[in-house]
Structures are given as structure tokens and as C-alpha cells.
Amino acid sequence: MITRELGENFLVQAGYLGLSITLSGIFGSVICGHVLEWSGKFKLITTILYIFSLIGTIAFAISLHFNSMEFLFVSSTLLGFFMTGYLPIGFEFVAEISYPQPEGTSAGLLNASAQIFGIIFTYTSTLIIDILDLFGPTSTILSY
């Protein structure tokens, strides 16, 4: 998405954006996991993380639309922190709500569904990018 919108000259910056998403996601996973352990409020923490992930996705889409690298790095970092920070909380939450079932079954089904939907969204978004424009796939993801 980044190289299509900003050009092939931004290939290195796209790699740095991926690095910022990954590094902030590592911190997000640790920090959000500790916050959940401290508070014990699964639904509240989950809702807060979803809201901030949505805000991060919107900020990412806007920064792509306006070609702002600074805003793109900030929005990518926030997106990585909250979206990746949700992963350990999501696994813990699904283990809690499906209690009689083993955690391995719940985690396996959660991972399988993430992979299936990831493949579907990747192919669908690629078609939308090729046919319409760049802003379409982000809007499609936001609508779900």
C-alpha cells in the first residue's frame, strides 16, 4: 500500500514502518498484558484496545492519503502498539469465555480464523486496490 501510494522510492521507509509497527507491538503486548493482569477487566480493556486500534487505522489511512511520512510513522507506531497489544489479551479473553474447552483448542481456532480472514482480506484488498484506489481497502477493513 505504501509503495503504491508514495512510490517505489519509499521502499526503505516502508521497511522502517514495518519495524516501528513490530517494535511498538512488542511493547504493546507486554504493557497491555500487565494492565489486564493488574485490572482483571477483560471486556473494558478489550473495548479500549479496539477503539484505539480503530483510531490508529483511521490515522494510518489519513496519513497515506495525505502522503505525510511523519504522521505515517506516528500512526503506524500507535497502530502497532494497540493492535498487536490486543493479541495476548484476545487469547486470554477467548480462554476465559470458552472455559470448559481446553485453551489449546480455543487458541488454535482463533489462530486458524485469523489466518483464513487474513488471506481473504489480502486478496480482496488487492483487487480493490487494483480496481478502485488505495483508500478503498482501508475503508473496507474499517467497515468490518
TrEMBL record:
**Superkingdom per UniProt:** Eukaryota
Protein localization? Membrane
This protein's GO cellular component annotations are:
membrane
Q: Which GO terms describe its biological process?
A: heme export
Q: Which residues cross the membrane?
A: 14-36, 48-66, 72-95, 107-129
Keyword terms:
Membrane, Transmembrane, Transmembrane helix
Q: What kind of membrane protein is this, topologically?
A: Multi-pass membrane protein
Q: Which GO terms describe its molecular function?
A: heme binding; heme transmembrane transporter activity
Domain Major facilitator superfamily (MFS) profile, which positions? 1-144
PANTHER family of this UniProt entry? GH15861P (PTHR10924:SF4), MAJOR FACILITATOR SUPERFAMILY PROTEIN-RELATED (PTHR10924)
Designated name of the protein = Putative MFS-type transporter -like protein
Species whose genome carries this gene: Sarcoptes scabiei
